[in-house]
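Hi P.,

Sorry for the delay on this. The queue was packed all week, but I finally got your sequence through. Input first:
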Amino acid sequence: MEIIGRYNPRTNPKTVEFDAERVKYWLSKGAVASDTVHNLLINAKIIKGDKRRTPWTPSARTRPPNRPRRKKRRPRRRNKFANNKAAGPARRFDDPRLLTTLKAA
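Then the structure:
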């Protein structure tokens, strides 16, 4: 593997450096640049041609191509027994009345 350039988008202005001779050499040997690198090479005037459309081009799409659509959330179901006062207080498992009914059964 050979490093033929670098790109740093965090500097102001963005840093783009390529070894033009090596880029042309590898492209002549059949290397294929990604869409983004191809567009950077065109901006640096190392190669000529039209820019390629990338998934991140604002006019291409608003969401990444492989990201699934979000499912609509269903509304939460209310517990129909939550406010039922007729059922009485909830019994715990250590309640002796419950233990006797379990043993009798």
